[in-house]
Structures are given as structure tokens and as C-alpha cells.
Amino acid sequence: MVKFRKKIKGFEGLYEVDTEGNVYSTVQNSSRRKKKLKPYINTGGYLRVNLYDENSKVHKRYVHRIVAQTFIPNPENKPDVNHINPDKADNSVENLEWCDAKYNIAESRRLGLQQDKTVKAISILTGEVREYTSIKNAAMALAGKKWAFDPLRKKYKNKFYYKEWRIEVMPA
């Protein structure tokens, strides 16, 4: 595919992106120079850039989403962008596709990038041990809501208590 640039929606006149996933500033003034932006890698391994609007307010954006929104039609209004090969640094148009969360998760599992974690629940009253194939399954069985453990996991990570249960999230 021939490499070419387009203006980034919402930042017209300020930034452009090319079909290879490179982002450029297009404004030249005292605080901003015309240049190719250097993305940074977030904790999930995705490339991000900081885009500044006319009021100098920063907007942190994923490079793969910028490329998809700029070059790839999304007639079904799918919310997520999938990297076709597992290289998160390859943000070229050929490597991206619109998808839903279910497809994105299935693809990452198929490629071995994401695995279910075994969850062990131990009753502090009786010592009974129950094992579950995922955090969501354990939460449904013990709390009746699949998201019930989310706040506890954010705070305590892989070991926490829920009512009479000590929950341990084991690596896959």
C-alpha cells in the first residue's frame, strides 16, 4: 500500500497520521514544531501519543485507534480495534480491523496472548475449597454478579476476601 497522510479528526490543521501509523504535528509556532511524534508505550504495550488542541489541552490517544478512525471504514460501528498480527507496535492499516470485544478477546486467546486464570475460593468458616475457571465465574457463583470482584481486584490484586471466602487468583 502506498504511504499517505490524512488529517486526524478533531485535530484538523494540527496533526496528521499516515497509513503506517506515524503521527505528525503540522503546526509550526513557538511551542510546537512540525515533526513526527514519538509515541510512548503504555502499561498494556500499546503505543500512545499526546495530542494538544488549540487551547493546549492534552488528549492522550492510542495510535491504532487514530489509524483505524482515519483510514478504516466502520459501517457496523464496532467499538474496538484489533491488531491482526499480535504486534502492538504494528499500527499499519493492513494490520488493523474493527471488531467487538468478544471477537478481540477470542483472538487474543487464540493467539495465546490472554488466558483464563484459575480462581480458588476457600471458606474461612469451613475450609471448603472451590475452584473456578475465571474471575467472572467465581464472582457469579459467590456473589451473583459477574463484576462483584472488580473493585476488590483493583485494590488487592490477586488475594482478597469476599464475605466468608478468601479468594486467590492463580496465574494460568
Give a brief outline of the structure:
One of its GO terms (molecular function) is hydrolase activity, acting on ester bonds. This protein is an alpha+beta fold and 172 residues long. It is built from 4 helices and 13 strands.
Annotation keywords:
4-stranded antiparallel sheet, elongated, NUMOD4 motif-containing protein, 2 domains, alpha+beta, HNH_nuc, NUMOD4, 172 residues, Homing Intron 3 (I-Ppo) Encoded Endonuclease, Chain A, His-Me_finger_sf
Summing up helix and strand content along with how strands pair, one would put the structural category as alpha+beta
Radius of gyration: 21 Å
Kindly estimate the percentage of residues that lie in beta strands according to DSSP.
25-35%
Low-confidence stretches: none
Question: What pattern of helices and strands is seen along the backbone?
Answer: EEEEEEEHEEHEEHHEE
How does this model look, in words?
Residues 6-52 form the NUMOD4 domain. GO terms for molecular function: hydrolase activity, acting on ester bonds. This is NUMOD4 motif-containing protein. Residues 61-104 form the HNH nuclease domain. The strands form 4 sheets. Strands 1-2-3-4 form a 4-stranded antiparallel beta sheet, with helices on one face. A 4-stranded antiparallel beta sheet has the order 11-10-13-12, with helices on one face. The chain has 172 residues and is α+β, with helices and mostly antiparallel strands. It has 2 domains: 5-110, Homing Intron 3 (I-Ppo) Encoded Endonuclease, Chain A (Alpha-Beta Complex), CATH 3.90.75; 119-169, no CATH class. The two termini are 39 Å apart. It has helices at 63-71, 101-110, 135-143, 150-156; strands at 5-7, 15-18, 23-25, 35-36, 40-41, 47-52, 58-62, 80-83, 96-99, 119-123, 129-132, 159-162, 165-169. The model has no long low-confidence stretch (mean pLDDT 90). The protein has 4 helices and 13 strands.
